[in-house]
Amino acid sequence: MTEAEWKETWYLFDDKKTDKVTKNDFVHIIRSLGRKHTEAEIAEITKSLGDPVTMEEFLNYMRKPYQGPTEQDLITALQAFDGNDSGFLKQTELVSLLTTLGEKMSEEEVQQIMKDVKVDDEGRVQIAEFARYLCTPVPSMTPNIEELQRQLGA
Prior knowledge:
By secondary structure, this protein is mainly alpha-helical. Helices cover about 55% and strands about 5% of the residues. The longest helix is centred in the N-terminal third of the chain and has 11 residues, at about 5-15.
């Protein structure tokens, strides 16, 4: 991604172009740009930032190299719970893992994910397919801010 694309995403949150956003918005921006940090990592990243976070702080952060978790990392982690090396986990086991280990997800979050995940006739989820689903970026449509403002008469 280019710096221009980073700025375009920034301005979705900073629509008045003040070059400042809240720390919460900063986290939403970096996550929407593919930075997959844990809550502990987010706390570490944001503790030295101002509140509000400036555009310059954001750009300095984005210029740093990033190597987040990969699809293969997730597959490897999930395979640790596949006792018979079948390549599958029972849906109930998967729900339990997601709601009890690491950065716990809420039941509602897990149920939302599970609506989109293929479960076989035996109630199992294929590990590789699940990892691919979780690692595939959500398609988004970046609105044209100027066009929206024109339509709203701003």
